[in-house]
Input
Amino acid sequence: MTKQQYLYFTVFSSGMTVLAIELSASRLLGSVFGTSNLVWANIIGLMLVYLTLGYFIGGRWADRSPNHKTLYQIICWGAFFSGIVPLVARPVLYAAAQAVYEINAGVAIGSFLGVLLLFSVPVTLLGCVSPFTIRLAITDVSKAGQISGFIYAISTLGSIIGTFAPTLFLIPEAGVTWTFLLFSGWLLGVGLIGLLWIDRRTARNMLWMPIVLVILAVVFLSLPRRPIPEGYQLLYEKESAYNYIQIVEDENQYRYLWLNEGQGIHTQYHPDILYYGRTWDMFLAAPYFNPGFQPEEVNSLVIIGLAGGTIARQHTAVYGQIPIDGIEIDGAIVDASRKYLEMDMPNLNVIVEDGRYAFNRLAGPYTVVGIDAYRVPYVPWQLTTVEFFEEIADRLEDNGVVVINVGRTTSDRRLEWAMANTMLQVFPSVHRIDVPDSLNTILVATRQPTTAANLIENFQALNRNTHPLLWQVLNDAVANLKETETSDVIFTDDRAPVETIVDDMTIEFFLSGEVDSLAP
Output
């Protein structure tokens, strides 16, 4: 391989690493801050700022020091700092997760900006590579356009690989930290080999870089990513393509599914207890808004956002072996739940797929469609629109219902109000239950016109042989029944400002006096 060919290979490797860093950055931050448009805008916008700065600096630097030695030194430093990022970011992200739990706005926002600032040095340095390479590659001005175009082409080709490799393979199989280390290690090797070719002494002087990265990786990767609180035992831990997953058990044999920042419980399980006093329980109450509804009328259920199967387990206990379709996008959650949360009901058909896409491949009809895929700030907009609820209505029985768990704050119900108004564009009635001691509201839409009084009457008419879990849940639902409120916002496939509302709610929640009153 000639020096010119190796120069092109270097550009390819640099372009691949830059995109890999950008996509891995979204996964690194997403475990705490979500993947909303605001997060993506911050990541992409700041990365472009860093690259712009790198292009400017790189061009001037290349004119002042137009030699291969300088270029490969820049690459080595850029690769080294790229490898440092996930190792330094881990404790910062843990502090951010704690701040979210403790509602400490300054630390949460500061950690978010701090992690993004960590990318400023490596991405700016890697932004220097393309203009520097062009300066070195052009020996004949008459071919400047041809060479520049070729360099941008191979850099973009590398970026394509850097886009798909982390997303489709490396992050799911090796995790975010190892993805960073693999790409930075590759690029560091490219830089050191280039230096060996040009200046062996300089290359030897920079061999400390991979040694330091290896030592830091061994130290940091041996530390627990997130300490388990006292009183809990870690049973399972894995980083999947979508989530950082933990399953823990407390001293009372309750098991919990924690995702990402670990402050929300996505599934609860106990071998002998079915009632938890949480949002999943309330899904059992949904069909009883129909007049004169009887337990034997529940024929089928579909759950979008299956997680560890709490809702499916409770419905099976109350209604027997009714067919249940459970849709969960993360196959790693399904595997872990089958092993540690006894999600092995024979009547449960698990579908590992995106919620709306998978639902539209089902025929129905269903008595209940349950959606438990919303959790501020993780709210998939495609599951909030008029068109989506029309698709649900087409798959409901005549007395069918759709029940949704919607997040809110103690003083801000904008998401709930918008969801209620959107559902009312499709369904004649929408009812509201506030889950006690939580920031969750259950919205129930019925295919036929119904009243809240029906729930009360159905509870009073329950047979004494009714399953105790159902009796307890209906008692809770009646006690926490509230009048439905709406706004003038309607979510559609064309315009669904879900993230705007959620981002605004989150910022106000952090910055308002309400936050201080809730902090422990």
Remarks:
- Residues 355 and 505 are 25 Å apart (CA to CA).
- The first strand starts at residue 232 and ends at 239.
- The two ends are 63 Å apart (CA to CA).
- Confidence is low (pLDDT under 50) at residues 513-520.
